[in-house]
Amino acid sequence: MKKITINNLSYKYSLAENKALNNISLEVEKGDFIGVVGPNKAGKSTLCKSLVGLIPHFYKGEFEGEILIDNLNTLNSSIAELSLKVGLVFQNPFNQISGAKLSVYDELAFGLENNGLGREEMITRIDKYLNLMDLNEVKDNNPFELSGGQMQKLAIASIMALKPDVFVLDEPTSQLDPQGTEEVFKAVSRLREENLTVILVSQKLNKLADYANKILFLNQGEIAAYDNTAAVFSRNDLEQMGMGAPIYTEIARELGLKNEKNQYPIRKSELKEMLVAKYGKNIG
Amino acid sequence: MRSLSLYVKRDSLIHKIDPFTKIIYVFVSVISPFILPTLIFSTSLTLINLLFLLLGRVVKKVLPIISFVFIIILTIFIIQGMFYDANQTELFSLFNLNFYVEGILYAARISVRAINVLLAFSLLILTTPPTEMIESLVRRGMPAKLGYIMHSVLQIIPMMSSNASIIMDAQRARGMETEGSLWVRIKAFIPLIGPLVMSSLVNTHERSIALEVRGFSAATQKTFLHQEKVPGGMKQLRIFFLLFLAAVLAWRLVL
Ligand SMILES: Nc1ncnc2c1ncn2[C@@H]1O[C@H](COP(=O)(O)OP(=O)(O)OP(=O)(O)O)[C@@H](O)[C@H]1O
Ligand SMILES: [Mg+2]
To answer: PANTHER family under this entry (chain B) (predicted)?
Structure first.
């Protein structure tokens, strides 16, 4: 089932000289986990903003083409309506705190209150996502007193509480220390368990290899590659395109280890299996 | 500091009264002495406020404010006591300066009313959690955006210090000293000001996006996580206060 359909999407920010996105067309299936990669200014964030309707409703600029979420055209629905279908989490956790609530618990209610949910339902959801994101211990703290990783988990929980079917995360760990990054990726794996459709922009290729079933590689506002994770990371022209591969793929490439699909392994477990198969259990 | 608020948590009768009833009370108590400006009337209302502050066990918190205002009041007494237009009857004289009954009474009328305003607002602010107060107004039709602004004022201090500590971490990571003697800390603070101002501009933009994607502009009727706790009898109490105000008005018109 198609969850997202993008047809010939182009966008130019007002005052910008070049298009940030240029004639993008792609489809995302329900339950897909798409890893989005690409160099700086490739248009990754612009794509994220388009998916949640910030483009064209918040940013005015030249918008062409269309995005359909479950056949709902983003052009015809408000950001608030879309927020119940597509959630967005972005880089800076500090800026995603509403600033209007004095406790983590209340912060989780912010979006729910805006959307007019009943009290019982709010409490059920808040308790659920507090637990899911391991935030129970800090539920009475002021949101601004949390660590970066906790703040980002709070941002994720606040969006999850709105129960969108599609979850867009734009480099959610790029401003976090290693521990915070680890916490957030654990949170991301919960999203996958909830069977949401996830679009995750990240430079952490090893992590993407663990989670994503597809990789979208953007370059200068255009799609450079969009395919299954292993297929993209096995391409021979990665280096020319200015992209790396997960560490296990690099090792396999050095050793010339390909699987029966003629692809390099992307995860540790796969590489280990192939190494054992080739060299036996007691190498070294 | 957790937030910018003067609220004092206590277990008292006054604390149990809901914010809206208190707001009505404060409104009536503040405005009545201006409608009916007799000294006895405003003094009685002031004493009632004082009594409520006692019941709310927050009198101590008002004293610093009162002592500050006391200086201003003293000046009013001295100036009006000597120079009030209608001064006629000499009351006493101090170092050859004459003080008059009319001026002193006039000063008393102004001062008591000022103190009354102060006490009434203190009563509200000291005994009502600010978020509950704002919510009770939003529930009754105050625009949610205005409510958001009022809420965010409460969060200014934690927000600023959180932001400052992020920037300070970054500066420390680049080898700048941010801890130690006062002088070192002042030196560390100065380069902080620029990024703090710049980042708050970017932050405002990003935060407005974050609010939008959480339905801040939703057309739906907003709901509230916290229930309004209104003890029994509050409706009657509110009506009583409003009737009292009506009576004061009537009295003024008849007099
Ligand atoms: N608000 C804006 N106004 C004008 N131009 C913008 C704006 N935001 C982004 N751009 C431009 O649009 C292009 C794409 O930017 P975008 O932020 O989508 O890239 P990105 O892939 O997310 O990059 P990064 O890895 O740096 O986050 C860039 O050329 C950028 O300068
Ligand atoms: Mg970006």
So the answer is: SLL0384 PROTEIN
Does residue B138 form part of some domain?
A: no
Q: Are residues A148 and A274 in the same domain?
A: no
Provide the residue range defining the domain that includes B245. Answer: 7-128+229-255
Residues less than 5 Å from ion ligand 2, measured at CB: A 45
Are A103 and A21 found together in one domain? yes
Three-state SS at B153: helix
Task: Indicate if A213 and A282 belong to the same structural domain.
Answer: no
Q: Write out the DSSP string of A73-103.
A: EGGGS-HHHHHTTEEEE-S-SGGGS-SS-SS
Q: What is the pTM of this model?
A: 0.83
Q: Would the CB of A13 count as within 6 Å of ligand 1?
A: yes
In this prediction, residues B227-244 reach a mean pLDDT of 92
Is residue B156 located within the same domain as residue B92?
no
Query: According to the model, what pLDDT value does residue B1 have?
Result: 45
Confidence of residue B140 (pLDDT cuts 50, 70, 90): very high
Residue B3 has pLDDT above 70, yes or no: no
Those residues of chain A that have pLDDT short of 70 are 283-284
Nearest ligand to the C-alpha atom of residue A44: 1
Residue B96 in any domain: the answer is yes
Tokens 């903003």 — which residue?
A: A49
- Rounded CA separation B107/A237 (Å): 88
Q: Quote the pLDDT of residue A283.
A: 62
Rounded distance, CA A232 to CA A218, Å?
Answer: 12
Same domain, A276 and A227: no
